[in-house]
Amino acid sequence: MSIQITLENMEAPVLTSMQALREQIQRNCAVSDANFSGAFSLCGLLLRMRELYKWEAGLPPWKEPEHGLILDWVEQREDLWQELEGRSCETLCLEGEELDPFEVERINQRLASRNLLYGAGYVLGMKPSFLLAEPVESQLVEGLRVYTVDRELCRDIFATPVMRQGERVIARRQAMAFLIWDVIQEQRPSVRPALGYALAGYGLNSQDLLRQPGAHGAVYQRMVAEELRVWVYHEIGEALEDAFPGDVWHQMVANTCQTLAEVFIRAVKDLLADTHPQGLLARMIQEDRKASLGLYLAMMRPLSKMLFPDIFSVFPDFVRSGNWSEVDQARGKAHVAGRNLAARLVDIHAAADPFDHARTVERIIEEVIRPLGIVDGMDVEAE
After folding, report:
1. I need a labelling partner for 108 at 20 to 30 A (CA). Which of 52, 200, 260, 322 fits?
2. Which of these, 335, 340, 346, lies nearest to 273 by C-alpha position?
3. pTM of this structure
4. Residue 43 to residue 46: CA distance in whole angstroms
5. Rounded distance, CA 129 to CA 151, Å?
6. What SS3 state is found at 369?
7. For 7-38, how does the pLDDT look when each residue is reduced to its tens digit (9 = 90+)?
8. Which residues of 305-325 are buried (b: 16+ CB within 10 A; e: fewer)?
């Protein structure tokens, strides 16, 4: 069961039990959501709230909540956010010790014996994001310890299927299941061919899934688990990529927070991770994971599509031939282009006035983004 946050238990005394720790973490999730809900578009916020409700209610991705129940929940959550807005995330009390909520290593050291895994970091818009979950698998991949989690005990409104913190990678089955289902349910015309190709690789089709999702639940969850395992290589590629030296990338996203420049910088980093010689696409090629390529295209975000158009150009021939050579060529070309973009961003960062972030954002947009023809109409929250 998830932790229900109320105004009353926001003021409860700090205890040392695991239940109290869960309440503290979920409070921080609620505080973060309250402070950053305004950073999302209305549509994006409602979609994320629907997913959060399903998680709290223990519903599978395809089970739509009763209209009246979710409306009441949304109203209560908005009231809570109003009360919490402006608060800071709290320290966590664990075994009598107070810990900063971003001291991930120390917290996990104390939770290891309880088979619990904690995650904390900053996502799009520098929103704090927290997770407490039960790991079901652990393996060493390319020097990184990869934990697969199934049951999530605490989470906030922003959930990404795979997240990396130093040498630890957390792969989240629930988040992956919700993300893929959203793509299937949305059925955008531009992604239908790639999505259909991906689902067919698992013996599925979107019509049957939408009509009788429960009947295909086991196959769907197998697809989620297999795709999540492959998606881990996005994080592998990111860890191995050196286009943004040292802590430069983190400084850049912090200085351009909640602007198109931040979204672009993140998209460039994702492109480099996906196209790295040991990244996501290279792994698909190595394992001959044709369905994974279709799903990759179907789930690609708008700005990422603009940065990697060649992958769509070669896809029709790939479907006919099953030959990976053109895909690999497109991967290599995109990786070179991504490194060139990263070098330009790093140069702008190096020359930037540390007290004039607005000017840095302006330079990135005018000198890097606008020449690519991808500024007009681009939604900052689209990524």
Report:
1. 52
2. 335
3. 0.91
4. 5
5. 17
6. helix
7. 444 444 434 478 899 999 999 999 999 999 98
8. bbbbeebeebbeebeeeeebe
Structure tokens at 369: 């983004």
Using CA atoms, how far apart are residues 297 and 309, in angstroms rounded to an integer? 10
Read off the pLDDT of each residue in 331-353 and give the average, rounded to a whole number: 97
Assign 299 to helix, strand or coil: coil
Chain Cα centroid distance, residue 58 = 20
Report how far residue 21's alpha carbon sits from residue 339's, in angstroms, rounded to the nearest whole number. Answer: 42
For 137, phi then psi, to 5°, come to -145, 150
- SS3 category, 171: strand
The confidence score (pLDDT) of residue 187 equals 84
Reply yes or no on whether the pLDDT at 188 is more than 90.
no
User: Half-sphere exposure (CA, 13 Å, Cβ side) for 140?
Assistant: 1
Crossing angle (nearest 10°) for helices 325-351 and 248-255: 70
Six-digit token pair at 301? 């975000």
- What burial letters (b/e) apply to 260-293, b meaning 16+ CB within 10 Å? bbbbbbbbbbbbbbbbbeebbbbbbbeeebbbbb
Q: Return all residues near 355 (Cβ < 8 A) that are at least 6 apart.
A: none
